[in-house]
Design goal:
Layout lengths: L11 H10 L12 H26 L6 H23 L8 H5 L2 H33 L12 H28 L8 H4 L4
Helix pairs in contact: 2-3, 3-6, 5-6
């Protein structure tokens, strides 16, 4: 067996014509929701803050103290608002091994119970975060003197979005008759 590579010569015209074969389609942004765009905006604020921290620390040798605090609080916003996207797309960690061995009716019942528990959890988390905001929402941040309530309102918004998306997913599961736990292949394209 020879290890010599064989290459076919292609002319510049042939290469140029390959770009004409298929017209690229426009970007499809329909799969993204409001929470995706909000998380992206907060992410870029965080990225710019981290870059400014790096630039002022290592290039100017005099770092801005507030950039680290802003980046930390932006990360909190990205995590909780971005989690709503994960709920909408059913991308959180889940164990579906048991569902492979259960008959349809018990699997359907267990999946419905899991949907209800998820809704109840997010509802309870909303209540807890709201109580937390009432207690310490007026405290000031360390370096920029804004109220910490701004950060916790982002967490609250994330839980409200997760609550709403979990209700939406539960309704879709009930209408469809199965969830991602019962038939993961129907959601990732592997089911034929």
């Amino acid at each position: 067996m020879s290890t010599v590579e064989v290459h076919k010569q292609i002319t510049a015209d042939e290469i140029a014509h390959t770009f004409e074969d298929e017209v690229p389609k426009g970007a499809d942004l329909s799969q993204y929701a409001a929470e995706d765009w909000l998380a992206l905006a907060i992410f870029w604020i965080m990225a710019l803050s981290v870059f400014l921290q790096f630039f002022t620390r290592y290039v100017l040798n005099d770092s801005y103290a507030w950039t680290e605090e802003i980046a930390t609080y932006c990360l909190i916003g990205v995590v909780f608002i971005g989690s709503a996207m994960c709920v909408r797309m059913s991308r959180h960690i889940q164990v579906d091994l048991l569902f492979r061995y259960l008959p349809h009716r018990p699997a359907r019942a267990l999946s419905t119970v899991i949907d209800l528990i998820r809704i109840a959890f997010f509802g309870y988390a909303i209540k807890l975060v709201w109580q937390f905001i009432q207690i310490i929402g007026d405290e000031r941040m360390t370096t920029i003197k804004f109220q910490k309530g701004f950060v916790y309102y982002a967490v609250l918004l994330g839980f409200v979005l997760m609550f709403a998306r979990s209700i939406q997913i539960a309704v879709e599961n009930w209408r469809r008759g199965y969830s991602i736990l019962e038939r993961p292949g129907a959601f990732d394209g592997t089911e034929g």
